[in-house]
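Tokens in:
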């Protein structure tokens, strides 16, 4: 029985390893197209009038769904009755279901769900394609990086700007630095671990690609990206020279010297990176300190999807109000990301989510339960692990997974690493397998329809935003019609509420802005809410909104200026003068003409004689 079972299993696997089916070829072609499209600067359509990734998210998710559907068709046509999963597959499936359940319980808009769907689909696709084929995608990354650099250089707006100001399609020099760091690690790994017929030509070509990528990495001035390269390159070097290190015997005192030298080097490097952009580093320390206080609220299950945007700024205001002399107060700003992806997971998904992620990463870097690989597969495994290590280090000090490109990289690396793990075969009756394939295929159809419907919504949203400066009433009517479908999108609510405020429909603006603040609390939205209250004659809630905004970002002048104006209009000249003095003696973070105008008005209030 056992022999026939094993024979059947080998017969099931043999056709897959010998020749790819048409569905696998289509799925591989779709994944290559997805890689080229996601990482290059070229797009099918225009974004909304402000920066966003809507078009890219929809396209990537649609391609991943189509590739998944192709593999489901292959599974439906297959005559085999065996399947196989490994430990990474199981834990990742639990994690994705856990996150999906949180989205159902606490909606956070469409785009986070689409990102989760595309991650799951891409992992499934890369997991079921041969490693020798998926590894070719690594060669696309440096070409896309060069295109991003070229695109960013072409879109520099000022004559004094240069390569340090290049942002690519990320619209952030630091995030582009993180992308170039990951690309550089992939190039180093391919140079060190791959063996080809044209050995030297291959390495020379990769070195020539690495030079401009490495130069852009240095010019990006992203400390997180530099650290990511150091750790990723160190990981690759250790595994490349592992055998030599094992055969080299250190005496006890030599080991102590090596450890001390490494410790001193790490301390020196950390100090240099900290002082390189001290204000930026201190700003992150403020965010992490406030986030730690927020984490203690629900440590086990977290505060839910989108919880950081909804809860961080009020918590920052409370912290700075309790610590008015904090040196970090002047660095406070409207914050939408915690600059640490693991901290964000802990905040929004709790210890449960963080533990599942930690187990997945442990399995990815562990050599236990691995199949006996060929030399090429062994080298490709180390390259994938090095790329993943660099990506994770960058994620400790930035916010790469807010961008779908980095989620694609994470799914690609995890799936490729999972291919090297031993999988446990299990028997699936044909009827159940075909039914499951039909169910997944049906879900793919529903997902594609949802993507199409959401794309139409965003186009209508875009048209309304473009129409608003010319003709406010039709634009607001369009926003009102979009509201039921987009009421869980904090960005839409902020735009809609701000438009109502500009159109002087203050009662409606108050309602919408309060909903926007429930999903994304920010000092800017609070200021608009306060101005709407004041225009509506509700001075007490307006003063409360201004006071909260001033606590969130103590360096702001506008809240104190607006409060002084309200006190003056109410005839409370004493409190108006107090606020005017605050504005006049306030330390300026960034001087602007608006601050100068506010100070002139405060001078008038201060010298006003009511008698």
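Residues out:
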């Amino acid at each position: 029985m056992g022999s026939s079972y094993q024979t059947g299993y080998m017969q099931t696997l043999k056709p897959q390893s010998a020749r790819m089916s048409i569905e696998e070829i289509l799925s591989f072609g779709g994944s290559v197209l997805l890689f080229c499209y996601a990482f290059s600067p070229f797009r099918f359509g225009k974004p909304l009038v402000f920066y966003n990734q809507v078009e890219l998210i929809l396209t990537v998710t649609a391609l991943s769904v189509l590739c998944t559907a192709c593999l489901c068709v292959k599974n439906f046509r297959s005559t085999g009755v065996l399947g196989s999963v490994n430990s990474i597959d199981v834990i990742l499936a639990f994690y994705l279901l856990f996150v999906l359940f949180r989205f159902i319980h606490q909606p956070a808009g469409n785009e986070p769900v689409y990102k989760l769907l595309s991650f799951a689909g891409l992992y499934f696709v890369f997991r079921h394609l041969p490693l020798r084929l998926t590894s070719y995608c690594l060669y696309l990354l440096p070409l896309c990086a060069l295109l991003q650099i070229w695109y960013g250089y072409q879109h520099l707006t000022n004559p004094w700007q240069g390569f340090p100001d290049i942002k690519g399609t990320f619209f952030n020099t630091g995030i582009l630095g993180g992308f170039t760091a990951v690309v550089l690690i992939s190039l180093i790994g391919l140079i060190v671990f791959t063996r080809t017929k044209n050995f030297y030509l291959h390495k020379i070509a990769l070195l020539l690609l690495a030079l401009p990528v490495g130069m852009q990495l240095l010019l990006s001035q992203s400390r997180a990206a530099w650290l990511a390269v150091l750790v990723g390159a160190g990981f690759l070097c250790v595994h490349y020279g592992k055998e030599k290190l094992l055969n080299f015997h250190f005496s006890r005192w030599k080991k102590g010297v090596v450890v001390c030298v490494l410790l001193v080097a790490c301390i020196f490097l950390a100090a240099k990176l900290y002082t390189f952009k001290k204000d930026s580093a201190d700003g992150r320390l403020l965010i992490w300190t406030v986030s730690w206080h927020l984490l203690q609220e629900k440590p086990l299950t977290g505060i839910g999807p989108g919880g950081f945007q909804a809860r961080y700024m009020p918590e920052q205001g409370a912290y700075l109000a309790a610590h008015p002399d904090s040196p970090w107060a002047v660095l406070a700003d409207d914050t939408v990301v915690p600059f640490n992806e693991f901290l964000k997971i802990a905040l929004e998904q709790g210890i449960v989510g963080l533990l599942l992620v930690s187990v997945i990463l442990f399995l990815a870097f562990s050599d236990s339960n691995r199949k006996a690989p060929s030399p090429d597969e062994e080298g490709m495994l180390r390259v994938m692990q090095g790329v993943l290590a660099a990506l994770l280090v960058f994620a400790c000090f930035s916010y790469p997974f807010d961008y779908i490109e980095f989620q694609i990289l994470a799914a690609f690396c995890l799936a490729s690493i999972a291919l090297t793990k031993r999988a446990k075969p299990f028997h699936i009756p044909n009827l159940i397998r075909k039914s499951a394939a039909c169910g997944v295929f049906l879900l793919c159809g529903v997902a594609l329809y949802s993507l199409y419907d959401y794309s139409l919504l965003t186009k209508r949203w875009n048209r309304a935003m473009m129409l608003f400066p010319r003709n406010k009433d039709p634009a607001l009517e369009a926003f009102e019609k979009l509201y039921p479908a987009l009421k869980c999108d904090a960005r839409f609510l902020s735009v809609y509420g701000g438009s109502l405020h500009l159109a002087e429909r203050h009662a409606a603006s108050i309602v919408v802005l309060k909903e926007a603040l429930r999903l994304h609390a920010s000092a800017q939205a609070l200021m608009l809410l306060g101005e709407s209250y004041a225009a509506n004659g509700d001075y007490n809630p307006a003063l409360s909104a201004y006071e909260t905004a001033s606590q969130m970002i103590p360096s702001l002048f506008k809240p104190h200026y607006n409060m002084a104006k309200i006190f003056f209009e109410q005839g409370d000249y004493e409190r108006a003068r107090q606020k005017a003095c605050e504005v006049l003696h306030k330390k300026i973070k960034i001087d602007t003409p608006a601050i100068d105008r506010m100070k002139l008005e405060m001078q008038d209030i201060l010298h006003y004689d009511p008698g």
